[in-house]
Amino acid sequence: MDRTPPRGPVRLTNENIQLDTTWETAIGDDTNYPGFGFAILLSYKSLQTLTNSSEQLSSRVVTVSVSNPNTTNLSEPIILTFNHLKSSDANTTCVYWSEDGEGAWSIQGCTSVKSNSTHTVCSCTHLSSFALLRGIQENKKCRQLVMWAGASVALACAVLSLLMTLWCRFISKKSNGGSRPEQHFNL
């Protein structure tokens, strides 16, 4: 039996997604090659309603699996080309399902290479379940806006508190009548 691992590109496609990788990425280290290798592209048709309302799926969810046991830090990224569910989907984000904690969509390790109104090409350095989300950018902008507004209010309150303290000290030094505890009590 020949135990020479296959070499070269691997392309798997279905009606909505295309996976491009290499046999070297799919198999991993030649020293542990068992004499066979595999690459699997599994597409789910019924997961479109499982996300929260602020993040909507723009593609089918897919799972990529290979015979390489090290799938968290691939030597070469995999390339996924997604068809958008609606041709008007713009500003999509490449995401994967992170199983940390309760599980959530994450952008870590996945980047959008190019995108148009019908397709988005993603490059990912690990394997998992992947999809395109729309609404994630708006959600980030909204969180940033809330963060800056909260920080501004906190800063304004700190400055106001400092000014009030300085004013009380000034009034206390200027006024000989009344004691300091009474003035603080009145504030």
UniProtKB/TrEMBL annotation:
GAIN-B domain location is: 1-140
Keyword Transmembrane tagged: yes
The yes or no answer to whether the keyword Membrane is present is yes
- GO molecular-function terms, A-Z: G protein-coupled receptor activity
GO BP terms: namely: adenylate cyclase-activating G protein-coupled receptor signaling pathway
Which keywords are on file for this protein? Disulfide bond, Membrane, Transmembrane, Transmembrane helix
Query: What transmembrane ranges does the database entry give?
Result: 145-167
Taxonomically, the superkingdom here is Eukaryota
Gene Ontology CC terms, in alphabetical order:
plasma membrane
Pfam families referenced in this protein's UniProt entry, alphabetically: GPS
Q: What start and end residues bound the annotated signal peptide?
A: none
Q: Where in the cell is the protein located?
A: Membrane
Stored InterPro entries: GAIN_B, GAIN_dom_sf, GPS
Q: How is this protein named in the record? A: Adhesion G protein-coupled receptor E3-like
Q: Which organism is it from?
A: Salvelinus namaycush (Lake trout)
